[in-house]
Amino acid sequence: MRIGILTGGGDCPGLNPALRAVVMRAMDFGDECVGVKRGWAGLIENDTMPLTLDTVEDLISRGGTILESSRANPFKRDEDLQATLRNIDELKLDAIVALGGEDTLGVTYKLFKLGVQTVGVPKTMDNDLNCTDYTFGFDSAVQIATDAADRLRDTARSHRRVMVLEVMGRHAGWVALETGVAGGADWILIPEEPLDIDEMADHLRRLRERGKHFGLVVVSEGVEMTEADHSTARTDDFGHVILRERGVGEFVAKEIEERAGIETRLAVLGHIVRGGSPTAFDRMLATRLGIRAVDLVHEGKFGYMASLTGNQFVGVPLEDAVAELKTVPHALYEEIRTLFK
Amino acid sequence: MSESSPAVKRIGLLTSGGDAPGMNTAIRAVVRRAIHHGVEVVGVCHGYRGLIAGDFIPLPTTAVSGIINRGGTMLFTARCPEFTTDEGQQRAVEQLRRREIDALIVVGGDGSLHGVHALWHKWQVPTVGVPGSIDNDLAGTDFSIGFDTAVNTALDAIDKIRDTAVSHDRVFVVEVMGRTVGFIALHVGLAGGAEAILIPEIPCAVSDICATIRQGRERGKESYIVVVAEGAGRGFAVAAEIEKCTGADTRATVLGHVQRGGAPTAADRVLASRLGAAAVDGILEGRVGVMVGIQADQVVVSPVETVWTRRKVVDNALYDLALVLGT
Fold first, then answer.
1. Which of A120, A181, A255, B150 is a plausible cystine mate for B259, CB 3.0–4.6 Å?
2. What is the CATH classification number for the domain harbouring B218?
3. Residue B319 falls within a domain, yes or no?
4. With contacts defined as CB-CB under 8 Å, which chain B residues touch A279?
């Protein structure tokens, strides 16, 4: 078979190890692999590269993606869709393995519905995909953010300050929640829970009263502020608000200074959490998902996504995976609140 | 500088100004070197503010166990406008006399070292400064404590950003700390292979960087890292200008206070240990009103006013080298 492989959406650590595993597993079946460059843009524009053992062998520890990525959406304009279908034909691709998050896998599913033989591999540092326990990139991102949290607690303690750490995660609070727990935060703000600034400010004041003179607040970029804060932000090709332009962290830091009267500083990690060498956990997860994806192709399970479910690597229908985002359950947040002392 | 020194039995120690990784290592070195000479150390909490308030803690050798690798400062730090006044300084000196503290060691940056000068020249309190600053902006020493750690923290971030810059064919502008000087930016830019570095010491128009990026994109080079020292511009503004001028997808990252924390690197621990011990030796040998420093890997002392009478300049050759290697 000729298998086209692409990486779409925001990059994250683990994409390269996953590519490597797909190519290595495909070799077992005697398949040929074609690397599609820059996500769906590569299919729209017929931009590809050969993927051989040589190309991928040493990728296990490399961040980023050698195929490069984009947020291009072939369903946005009909001519792009027609070009995509024509190029799949011209490239003689028997199957497409797409590595991506909600948006990329949404396209993967829609193409499957149009008769293209597609399989998905879940990737997102946000960990917001359903039907899989974890997505690769998440563990690496949390590790980097936790390292930053440790550093911020040092300088917060020296200066008796509150540090606000804004992390990525889009509309799910997983990165903030796990960074907050692992980084010893005094308060965690996630998009799933209504924002109660007064409750947080009271808590930070109480910390002072009991003799803890510094604090760390981890806030997810997607936390809702007011209706107005969406008005000026731009959207990308998938219609998503570009969250970094909303400045949640800045808002939270300012409110803490005003309401609690505590000197506060802000750190916004941004794209740092998207790069770097993947953790051992992410390398393992990416590798086994890559292997499973090629197996799904050979089982004829198109329209499926490789998934980690309860320690087993299985196939799940893409339709179920992209139906809705996996967000932090209220009960879990309540459990974590026990750490806000 | 003074050549004579009455017997010193008790030394006060404070950390002041912005914190820097390695301050704890320096505290440990001061305490243990002093104890080695039979001298007691009293810690002053919250910098000069604590000195005025008499916020003192004993520092026996056990108090500094297990802090060699801890970021921040166990003595805390603060900025204290009151200490710039005569009244504030007088109250501080009275606190020292009341506690029978014979001499003082101050770990900190530019502002903190002005305090050293005042205490010795106006109040005759034998005082020695230890350069602690991630910015490395202090004349009289090749390196200040915390600089190497801050550079490595920023470098780690740039390595990660390069991954995502290459994946997305983007330009990334990374703003690093450094106050009015470009040492962090220059060292991080060189070590991280940045394509352009903006520092306050060397004028460089953003339009020149844009021209380089446009030329590069014509020959197929798509991703760029631009390091901006906070004293040379704001990361988000530079990114907006580059995006507008080149049309390249551009993102900004402001590293901020992450650079102030974390475990000190080996180089910072060695430096802090040497300088902390040298400060104690200086007091016991009557070399006071000075800052200890490192020059060509030798511990040296300079009059503390060197810090503001001489300006520490970046090495132009290093900047040129960074540009040659980064393009």
1. B150
2. 3.40.50.460
3. no
4. none
Check whether A242 has a pLDDT greater than 80: no
User: What pLDDT does residue B3 have?
Assistant: 44
| B78 and B204 both lie in a single domain | no
How many independent structural domains does chain B possess?
2
Where a domain ends, among B226, B243, B261? Answer: B261
**For the segment B222-279, what is each residue's pLDDT rounded down to a tens digit?**
899 999 999 999 999 999 999 999 999 999 999 999 999 999 999 999 999 999 999 9
The fourth-level CATH superfamily of domain A140-275 is Phosphofructokinase domain (3.40.50.460)
Q: Is residue B325 part of a domain?
A: no
Which residue numbers in chain B have pLDDT < 50? 1-4
What value does the mean pLDDT of chain A take?
A: 93
B168 close to A (CB below 8 A): yes
By residue range, what is the domain housing residue B285?
Answer: 10-146+264-309
Can B281 be counted among the known catalytic residues?
Answer: no
- B132 within 8 A of B146, measured Cβ to Cβ: yes
CB contact under 8 A, A155 and B19: yes
Q: Does B206 share its domain with B238? A: yes
pTM of the model: 0.85
Tell which residue, A101, A111, A109, has the closest CA to residue A43: A111
On whether ipTM exceeds 0.90, the answer is: no
Residue the block writes with tokens 């197929």? B220
* SS3 category, A304: strand
pLDDT band at A270 (very low <50, low <70, confident <90, very high): confident
- pLDDT of A223 higher than 70: yes
**B270 and B214 share one domain:** no
- Per CATH, the number for A2-136+278-321 is 3.40.50.450
